[in-house]
């Protein structure tokens, strides 16, 4: 695990505050447990800063700058920190010690691919459930954003010290699946020359037509010779299998693998639904009205009560949610569950929190990340998506056009709650205008340097020779990876990785422009070895950032 400088600073500031109080330099007040540490936007203001003195001014009844002046002389010495100064109206700014920065080259090389791992999560068990698209057709670009967010978040949480499991929830029960099966049977009949109508509320995309034609080619008229209900069940099972297999393949093309694929149907076949109904009845959370069974969501903070069993005796949509989360928390024992949902599910969040209270669970243990939709553009024009009309751009098509790395980076480059446009033309462009190319080219350039210098030994390179401003600027970016991992995990914000990777690549390109790595001039051998050591360490960090985003780190481009 990589020690975090911001954590060291928090401890040092807390100790300095208490020491100042003990010595009478500051009045008594409660020292905050969580002292804020920031990264200044301007580098000349330091590498780290704290606004804690402004926050304490009212408690201490002192000007923030006076509090800062009492703290700074009492700060413990930290190897990572060189200069410390106070800036109006009371900021304390910290500058990384040059010697410490230089030593981080050796530390990165020592840790290798483990660099950036932190112990923020302390082994807590977290499930990230993502994509979970209704298995009624092939995945499209809306699902792609879900997939990228969920998988990158899971990777960040793993790097931050959590025990993470990825799960795909298969919605293989309910009215939508019935419509899918009816649509598939109708398309199958049409493929065999029969004049069947597709249900008006069914699925009109080309993907269902393609599935039906494949089934007709393989099975002939078998399902037309069965009773309708039997045919629906049989062809539905085949269609479900095809959709899930296609989803597995598409997600694998993006490098996404799940620890589990959970069937909604299993909730009703293994007794979980009956268990939660008993639990909710005993807790007084259910009542009957108009022949249906309702959940008292309003009594637990929900906006309206919800049907859990319809008047025809079939489970309502919310019944599956309750049973599934009972399985997650009670039966499988996850400390935290994170669901990645589209923004159109925002109205479901309050009832999910009410469900947690009914199960006797802390609602904060269930985190729902809502993401905005993606607009595809090509040639400056918007490409419309419509799963129902068949005018659908599938995930597979986009992956084949621009590649998995571009899909992953662009969909991760904005926060989940930001709407975004995905420019297909830009994603394919091989220039600095394309951030994917720009970042990956930095890694390929490093790999090229190291190949060309393969006969030069840099193991004994003296990192204290790394004094050029561009070298130190690069080092400052490199050492931010552990803090970025922690921040991305704490804020559930994997898009911070995209910002970090671009910033690191920019620093490397500037270093490459300003500093000749391999010099053949007499007397430059020691500096060459030091710079080779630096770029070797940078290669590790850049590859690590790319890997956390699920992207490849190319050796050549």
Write up this protein.
The protein has 557 residues and is of the alpha/beta class. Among the domains are: 5-96, Gyrase A, domain 2 (2-Layer Sandwich); 128-135 and 260-371, HUPs (Rossmann fold); 431-548, Isoleucyl-tRNA Synthetase, Domain 1, CATH 1.10.730. The protein has 20 helices and 14 strands. The chain has helices spanning 5-22, 52-60, 64-71, 98-111, 141-159, 175-191, 206-219, 228-253, 266-269, 272-282, 317-331, 349-358, 395-402, 404-412, 424-428, 435-452, 469-478, 481-490, 495-514, 525-548; strands spanning 48-50, 81-87, 91-96, 125-129, 163-170, 260-263, 286-289, 292-295, 306-309, 336-342, 366-371, 374-378, 381-383, 420-423. A five-stranded parallel beta sheet has the order 6-5-4-10-11, with helices on both faces. It has a three-stranded antiparallel beta sheet with strand order 1-3-2. Strands 7-8-9 form a three-stranded antiparallel beta sheet. Helix 10 (272-282) crosses helix 11 (317-331) and helix 17 (469-478) runs parallel beside helix 20 (525-548).
Radius of gyration of CA atoms, rounded to a whole number: 29 Å
Strand content: 5-15%
Given the helix and strand composition, which structural class is it?
Answer: alpha/beta
Q: CATH superfamily membership of the domain at 128-135 and 260-371, which one? A: HUPs
Task: List low-pLDDT spans.
Answer: 386-390
- Our measurement of the CA-to-CA distance between the termini, rounded to an integer number of angstroms, reads 32 Å
Strand order of the largest sheet: 6-5-4-10-11
- Summarize the amount of helix as a percent range: 40-55%
């Amino acid at each position: 695990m990589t020690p975090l400088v911001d954590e060291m600073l928090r401890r040092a500031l807390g100790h300095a505050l208490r020491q100042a109080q003990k010595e009478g330099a500051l009045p008594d007040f409660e020292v905050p447990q969580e002292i804020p540490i920031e990264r200044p936007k301007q580098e000349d203001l330091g590498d780290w800063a704290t606004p804690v003195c402004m926050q304490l001014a009212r408690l201490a009844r002192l000007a923030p700058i006076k509090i800062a002046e009492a703290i700074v002389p009492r700060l413990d010495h930290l190897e990572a920190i060189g200069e410390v100064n106070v800036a109006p109206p009371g900021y304390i700014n910290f500058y990384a010690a040059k010697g410490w920065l230089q030593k981080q080259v050796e530390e990165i090389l020592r840790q290798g691919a483990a660099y950036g791992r932190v112990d923020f999560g302390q082994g807590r068990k977290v499930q990230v459930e993502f994509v979970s698209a209704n298995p009624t057709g092939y995945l499209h670009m809306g699902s792609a954003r879900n997939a990228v967010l969920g998988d990158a978040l899971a990777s960040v949480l793993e790097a931050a010290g959590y025990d993470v499991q990825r799960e795909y929830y298969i919605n293989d029960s309910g009215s939508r699946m019935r419509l899918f099966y009816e649509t598939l049977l109708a398309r199958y009949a049409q493929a065999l020359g029969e004049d069947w109508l597709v249900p008006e509320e069914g699925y009109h995309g080309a993907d269902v037509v393609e599935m039906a034609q494949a089934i007709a080619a393989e099975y002939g008229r078998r399902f037309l010779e069965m009773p309708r209900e039997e045919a629906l069940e049989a062809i539905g099972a085949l269609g479900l299998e095809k959709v899930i297999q296609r989803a597995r393949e598409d997600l694998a093309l993006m490098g996404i693998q799940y620890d589990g694929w959970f069937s909604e149907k299993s909730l009703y076949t293994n007794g979980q639904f009956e268990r939660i109904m008993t639990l909710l009845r005993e807790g007084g959370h259910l009542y009957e009205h108009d022949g249906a069974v309702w959940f008292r969501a309003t009594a637990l903070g929900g906006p309206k009560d919800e049907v859990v069993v319809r008047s025809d005796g079939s489970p309502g949509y919310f019944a599956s949610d309750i049973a599934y989360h009972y399985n997650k928390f009670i039966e499988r024992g996850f400390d935290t569950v994170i669901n990645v949902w589209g923004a159109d599910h925002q109205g479901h969040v309050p009832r999910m929190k009410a469900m947690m209270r009914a199960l006797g669970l802390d609602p904060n243990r269930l985190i729902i990340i809502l993401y905005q939709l993606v607009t595809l553009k090509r040639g400056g024009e918007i490409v419309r998506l419509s799963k129902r009309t068949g005018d659908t751009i599938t995930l597979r098509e986009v992956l084949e056009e621009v590649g998995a790395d571009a899909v992953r980076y662009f969909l991760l480059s904005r926060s989940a709650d930001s709407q975004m446009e995905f420019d297909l033309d830009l994603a394919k462009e091989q220039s600095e205008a394309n951030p994917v190319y720009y970042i990956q080219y930095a890694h390929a350039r490093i790999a090229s340097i190291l190949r060309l210098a393969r006969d030069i030994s840099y193991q004994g390179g003296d990192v204290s020779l790394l004094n050029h401003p561009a070298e130190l600027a690069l080092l400052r970016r490199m050492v931010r990876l552990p803090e970025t991992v922690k921040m991305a995990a704490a804020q559930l914000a994997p898009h911070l990785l995209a910002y970090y990777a671009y910033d690191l690549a920019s620093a490397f390109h500037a270093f490459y422009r300003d500093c000749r790595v391999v010099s053949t001039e007499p007397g430059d051998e020691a500096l060459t070895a030091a710079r080779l050591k630096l770029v070797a360490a940078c290669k590790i960090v850049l590859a690590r950032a790319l890997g956390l985003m699920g992207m490849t780190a190319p050796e050549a481009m």
